[in-house]
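fwd from M.: "can u put these together and see what the complex looks like"

so here's what she sent:
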Amino acid sequence: MDRVFAALGDATRRDIVRRLLTQPEASVSVLAERYAMSFAAVAKHVAVLERARLVSKTRRGREQVVRAEIGTLRSAAGLLAEFETLWRTRIDRMEGLLAEEAPAPRGEEPS
Amino acid sequence: MTVLRTTPDPEALTFTIVAEFAAPPAAVWELWADPRKLERWWGPPTWPARFAEHDLVVGGRSHYVMTGPDGGQAHGWWLVTAVDAPRSLEFEDGFAREDGSPDDSLPTTTARVVVEDTGGSSRMTVVSRFASAEQMQQLAGMGMEEGMRLAMGQMDDLLVAA
């Protein structure tokens, strides 16, 4: 998982992942056209993402086709989902405590 | 609908939650500042926390103990790094040994809390930051998941009571 977060620590790599989430696949050369950097530099970014299993790469003829690995992205998000549950529970309990302290609800006031 | 927004950011290693309470900021602040109130919501419902030390001043250290259903205990600490009562608070939160001294082998998170007055009610934003992806993983693997599943059950009771 460390590798996942390290891989996502770079803006270009995050952009590549985002792109692959909106289209089923893209070749390395098509991706390379999008960035102001060499084909080799983009290929290197793709390789980092591949090692982190955030994307997979297959060869099709002369092209290298890249796809997002949804499972890995989900598990990274999953760790934070647990934290979300913790905080949602805390906030519900805070609300409960504030309600205990609050004076009678406004609805009970004579109109 | 208390929770307005949650933003998990696996890239930045942060988790942000924004909530609105039908109470003035001073009352929300007291939930953080008064250890007797804090311990009623900080620990998971099956692991209630007891704060032996707690003082919201810069450099202030808190020491708390959470007791599980089987009697097992987990110690924790806070180090307060910034306070502007009743508006904002920043602290580190980690695990401790029995005497309250920080156990650096276990994960630490940093929390920044901001409470804003929204005209009769309050908006609270909490940003938690993990030190590293490794620490985040460690926290997630520490039985938190089980504790949280139990917490979910009690949440319904609290909502009915509230």
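replying to her w this: The beta strands of chain A are 26-27, 55-60, 63-68.
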